[in-house]
Amino acid sequence: MTQPLAVAVLGASGRMGSEAVRAIEAAADLHLVAALGRKDPLEELVAAGAAVVVDLTVPDSTEQNVAFAVEHGMHAVVGTTGWDSERLGRLQDLLALNPEVGVLIAPNFALGSVLATAFAARAAKYFESVEVIELHHPNKVDAPSGTAERTAVLIAEARAEAGLAASPDATRTSRDGARGCDVDGVRVHSVRLRGLVAHQEVLFGGVGEQLTIRHDSFHRESFMPGVLLGVREVGSHPGLTVGLDGYLDLQA
């Protein structure tokens, strides 16, 4: 019988972390060997024999956490934001020295959200106009969300490959922030409202028609199938993978 995969969770007392702990404990093929809080020493990961580390902490500590895991031969599944190009570059350099280790950095673990972003990127070349609206709970610390930013980047890449011009916009005067932020030419609007969890709409406009691609997460349980998928697959994908779509079969 195959031994359960040894998994540790960082940020185990947080909203996402506590859900991940429950999901891993309920999975017959996984074994939770450590659940660390913010002040717990990372050396406990080594002592526990973790093979995969799930990082659901905060932007200030995630790079250090993942570097520790990689340097000790542990795969990492990361849901923490704050991974800009500079941080990703340093991580890729570290992974080059540890070529058998895999790291997944996923802006969103909800499978429906990942699919919605993929569908939006696929549709992008067919419409003249596009804007993204992301809606989250008021305790979220970053805006726009990592999911919205990744969605906008993929849309912009698809539009550039298709040779599309910028979305038409005759605005000449506006209050600061009225038109959202600009992510590679795609406007992204952030809403923070009590009662929400995680929601996103991508609005496409053409002559006489509109396409809306929307995803809603009503509870953080919706992220757990993606977390578990990442944990099970990360060891088979050495190097850096950004986005859970890298583990899904999304070929046309």
TrEMBL record:
Binding of NAD(+), residues: G11, A12, S13, G14, R15, M16, G79, T80, T81, A106, P107, N108, F109
Q: Does the keyword NAD apply?
A: yes
Which part of the chain is the Dihydrodipicolinate reductase N-terminal domain?
A: 6-109
Q: Which residues form the Dihydrodipicolinate reductase C-terminal domain?
A: 113-244
- The protein's enzyme class: oxidoreductase
Catalyses: (S)-2,3,4,5-tetrahydrodipicolinate + NAD(+) + H2O = (2S,4S)-4-hydroxy-2,3,4,5-tetrahydrodipicolinate + NADH + H(+); (S)-2,3,4,5-tetrahydrodipicolinate + NADP(+) + H2O = (2S,4S)-4-hydroxy-2,3,4,5-tetrahydrodipicolinate + NADPH + H(+)
Catalytic residues, per the record, are H136, K140
- Tell me which residues bind (S)-2,3,4,5-tetrahydrodipicolinate: H137, G146, T147
Give one GO molecular function term: 4-hydroxy-tetrahydrodipicolinate reductase
Q: What EC number(s) does its UniProt record assign?
A: 1.17.1.8
Main subcellular localization, coarse class? cytoplasm
Q: Which key words are in the record?
A: Amino-acid biosynthesis, Cytoplasm, Diaminopimelate biosynthesis, Lysine biosynthesis, NAD, NADP, Oxidoreductase
Q: Which PROSITE patterns match?
A: DAPB
**Which pathway?**
Amino-acid biosynthesis; L-lysine biosynthesis via DAP pathway; (S)-tetrahydrodipicolinate from L-aspartate: step 4/4
Q: Which Pfam families match?
A: DapB_C, DapB_N
The listed locations are: Cytoplasm
Transmembrane stretches, by residue range?
none
Where, by residue number, does NADP(+) bind?
A: K39
Q: Which family does the UniProt entry place this protein in?
A: Belongs to the DapB family.
* Known partners and oligomeric status: Homotetramer.
PANTHER family, A to Z:
4-HYDROXY-TETRAHYDRODIPICOLINATE REDUCTASE 1, CHLOROPLASTIC-RELATED (PTHR20836:SF0), DIHYDRODIPICOLINATE REDUCTASE (PTHR20836)
Say what the protein does: Catalyzes the conversion of 4-hydroxy-tetrahydrodipicolinate (HTPA) to tetrahydrodipicolinate.
- The molecule here is called 4-hydroxy-tetrahydrodipicolinate reductase
Which species is this UniProt entry from?
Answer: Arthrobacter vasquezii
List the top taxonomic levels of the source: Bacteria, Bacillati, Actinomycetota, Actinomycetes, Micrococcales
Originating gene: dapB
